[in-house]
Write a structure and sequence with these properties.
Strand order of the largest sheet of chain A: 1-3-2
Number of helices of chain B: 10
Radius of gyration of chain B: 27 Å
Number of domains of chain A: 1
Largest sheet of chain B: 2 strands, antiparallel
Order of helices and strands of chain B: HHHHHHHHEEHH
Strand content of chain B: 5-15%
Strand content of chain A: 15-25%
Distance between the termini of chain A: 30 Å
CATH architecture of chain A: Orthogonal Bundle
Structural class of chain B: mainly alpha
Number of helices of chain A: 5
CATH topology of chain A: Arc Repressor Mutant, subunit A
Order of helices and strands of chain A: HHEHHEEH
Structural class of chain A: alpha+beta
Largest sheet of chain A: 3 strands, antiparallel
Shape of chain A: elongated
Largest interface: A-B, 20 and 23 residues
Number of strands of chain A: 3
Strand order of the largest sheet of chain B: 1-2
Number of domains of chain B: 2
Helix content of chain A: 55-70%
Number of strands of chain B: 2
Helix content of chain B: over 70%
Shape of chain B: elongated
CATH superfamily of chain A: Winged helix-like DNA-binding domain superfamily/Winged helix DNA-binding domain
Oligomer: heterodimer
């Protein structure tokens, strides 16, 4: 079982941060995002990959990402890219998580030293 | 999509969750594409078709969970789901009122433009009666029915419960039954007149009620089988 499955509350905000961070690199479609999350996190963040879409659509609705349809082998594939608003949100989320990580490392480090 | 609900079933579930048809189509497109990529990935690894299908389904996750995730986000739901009273009652009533007013305006403008010609002719009482009756049928029967059918169609496409459009259709029926319109074109001087209003009289309660109920019934009849079919599909 993954971290996500065990601790859904703990994971709050993580998918958004991860998706925004990946889209900051380049334009991607849903499957690419999911595959990268899987690869980069060694499956630690593996959620049911389908729930990526409501999250992406909600982010698009909030103006954090933009999408465009691209014809591909007779079908349409939706590509997402980060918007300026998404970039600002990414910076804020990254700062928050780094602060949290530093706090946790302080606690865990103190326990190790004790 | 083996081991997965079909695209039609996913789309239906998304519509019932409250997504707009276009949003549901797009979600299905993406979910389906994702599944096929997962399947191709598993097949490329040398898994058997059935095993690959099961793997792809597992990776994609439970479709009901995806649908529930959409339903949890009100910003992704159609406005008809977020504000049903506005969508199925207020907007249709305003549409009917606007259509009514615009048609009256058009008739007045047309009357003014044709006045010089009409002053030079004399219409028979029968023709005058027919023109007046046509205007009444158009404004008090056909327009309310047109708006009501549109409400029903929107409700069906959005998989809304039948009672929601029924309330809106009844409201349109009541408004149409309370309205009155008179178009009298006689020719000569004056060549005619247009009048309209809204009011309630205790003397005409049976006529008003029967007008409202008949309009409602006529508009609801085509909705009934659609709603029944929808319930049967949901039960399956």
């Amino acid at each position: 079982m993954t971290v996500a499955a065990k601790n859904p509350a703990f994971m709050s905000g993580v998918p958004e941060l991860v998706v925004l961070r990946l889209l900051a690199q380049r334009e991607m479609y849903g499957y690419e995002i999911a595959r990268l999350i899987r690869t980069l996190t060694n499956d630690a963040l593996s959620l049911g990959e389908g729930v990526l879409y409501p999250a992406l659509h909600a982010m698009e609705h909030r103006g954090l990402v933009r999408s465009r349809p691209v014809p591909h082998e007779g079908r349409t594939r939706i590509y997402y890219r980060l918007s300026a608003k998404g970039q600002t949100r990414l910076s804020r989320l990254t700062a928050e998580w780094q602060r949290l990580r530093a706090g946790l490392e302080g606690i865990l480090g103190a326990q190790d030293r004790a | 999509m083996p081991d997965q609900p079909s695209s039609v079933e996913i789309r239906e579930a998304l519509l019932r969750a409250g997504l707009a048809p276009r949003a549901a189509r797009r979600a299905v497109l993406e979910i389906e594409d994702h599944y096929e990529r997962l399947l191709a990935e598993a097949l490329a690894r040398g898994q058997a078709t059935e095993e690959a299908g099961a793997h792809a389904s597992l990776r994609l996750g439970d479709v009901q969970a995806i649908v529930a995730d959409y339903a949890r986000r009100p910003e992704l739901l159609a406005w008809s789901r977020r504000w049903p009273a506005l969508c199925f009652a207020v907007v249709p009533l305003l549409c009917y009122a606007a259509l009514f007013a615009a048609t009256l305006g058009l008739l007045v403008a047309l009357g003014r433009a044709l006045d010089p010609y009409l002053r030079g002719i004399q219409l028979s009482p029968q023709a005058t009666y027919r023109i007046g009756l046509t205007a009444q049928i158009l404004l008090l029967w056909l327009f309310p029915l047109l708006v009501s059918f549109s409400v029903g169609l929107v409700a069906h496409r959005r998989r809304a419960a039948l009672w929601l459009p029924a309330m809106g259709i009844l409201a349109i029926g009541i408004l149409a039954s309370l309205a009155n319109v008179e178009l009298t074109i006689t020719g000569g001087t004056p060549s005619g007149q247009v009048g309209a209003g809204i009011g309630f009289s205790t003397d005409t309660v049976p006529q008003t009620l029967s007008h409202a109920l008949l309009l409602t019934a006529l508009a609801l009849v085509p909705l009934w089988p659609l709603s029944r079919r929808g319930r049967q599909a949901e039960a399956r």
